[in-house]
Design goal:
The protein has about 170 residues and is α/β, with parallel strands linked by helices. The protein has helices at about 30-40, 50-55, 60, 90-100, 110-120; strands at about 5-10, 15-20, 45-50, 65-70, 80-85, 105-110, 125-130, 140, 150-155, 165-170. The protein has a domain at about 5-45 and about 90-150: Dihydrofolate Reductase, subunit A (3-Layer(aba) Sandwich). The protein has an 8-stranded mixed sheet, sandwiched between helices. Strands 2-8 form a two-stranded antiparallel sheet. A hairpin with a 6-residue loop joins strand 9 (about 150-155) and strand 10 (about 165-170). It is globular, with a radius of gyration of 15 Å.
Length: about 170
């Protein structure tokens, strides 16, 4: 069996933020970004998502197969498609291998993107840049060492200036 492919999907502002704060919902992104997001999620076997992100988008995410990262999985009831996991106590890679997932979407937040990058669970990054700035907020990665990426594609998503970038690790 070939190695699974890990694909991070994120939207950022012009000043590089994924959200204003930890409870900020992604309603600020364009309809074109949402269309792209849904299309790529439809093509993936499972989604890795942090508990805060999952709780904010529970309604649409609970309809998809999700591995929800939390320090306290015992506080939640697993759903038919959604499983709460503490990767400090359960191997995320082992769960992915046991279930034969081959295409894994990573939706964040910053702790999850950082965890996946650090643990070599990030092969590609689709990054939508929206023409908006928050002035403050949460960056895509936190406390990371320098990582080099290779740009694979650029696509203009709409006439207001939303851009989709596709990167792979260099």
């Amino acid at each position: 069996m070939k190695n699974p492919k890990y694909i991070a999907i994120a939207a950022i502002t012009l000043d590089g933020k994924i959200a204003k704060h930890s409870k900020h919902f992604s309603s600020w992104t364009s309809k074109e970004d949402k269309q792209f997001l849904h299309a790529i999620l439809d093509a993936c076997d499972v989604i890795i998502v942090g508990n805060s992100t999952y709780q904010m988008a529970k309604k649409p995410l609970s309809k998809r197969r999700c591995l929800i990262i939390t320090r306290s999985p015992h506080q939640y009831t697993n759903l038919p498609n959604c499983f709460f996991i503490n990767p400090a106590k359960q191997s995320l890679k082992k769960i992915i291998g046991q279930n034969k997932y081959q295409k894994i979407a990573i939706l964040g937040g910053a702790q999850i993107y950082s965890y996946c990058l650090k643990n070599k669970m990030l092969d590609e990054l689709y990054l939508t840049i929206e023409p908006i700035s928050f002035g403050c907020g949460i960056s895509l990665f936190e406390n990371q060492q320098t990582t080099k990426w290779k740009l694979r594609a650029i696509k203009k998503l709409n006439n207001v200036g939303t851009i989709l970038l596709h990167y792979t690790l260099k």
